[in-house]
Amino acid sequence: MTQTITVEGMSCGHCEQTVEDALASVPGVESAPADRGTESATIEGGAALEDLLTAVDDAGYDASV
Fold first, then answer.
1. Per-residue pLDDT averaged across 33-40, rounded?
2. Residue 13 pLDDT level (bands cut at 50, 70, 90)
3. Domain total of the chain
């Protein structure tokens, strides 16, 4: 399953990596590249949307659908 979420607040490559690491820590995530240019992350896997949004929020960024 592929899910795309909006992630606001990324301004550099380190920010993207932080978001990717946060998403990768969620059980069920297979891959989760983040893109500051489009302010989004595309998640592959069976993780629950609520868990994904919480992980990004906990990392200090604003996540929404």
1. 98
2. very high
3. 1
Q: Give the domain extent around 8.
A: 2-64
Tokens of 32: 């989760």
* Residue 42, domain CATH: 3.30.70.100
Instruction: Give the orientation angle of helix 49-58 with respect to helix 13-24, to 10 degrees.
Output: 140
pLDDT at position 45 is: 98
Q: How far apart are CA 26 and CA 9, in angstroms?
A: 20
Instruction: Compute the residue count for the chain.
Output: 65
* pLDDT number for residue 3: 97
- Who contacts 39 (Cβ-Cβ below 8 Å, separation ≥6)? 6, 7, 8, 10
Give the separation between CA 62 and CA 45, rounded to whole angstroms.
21
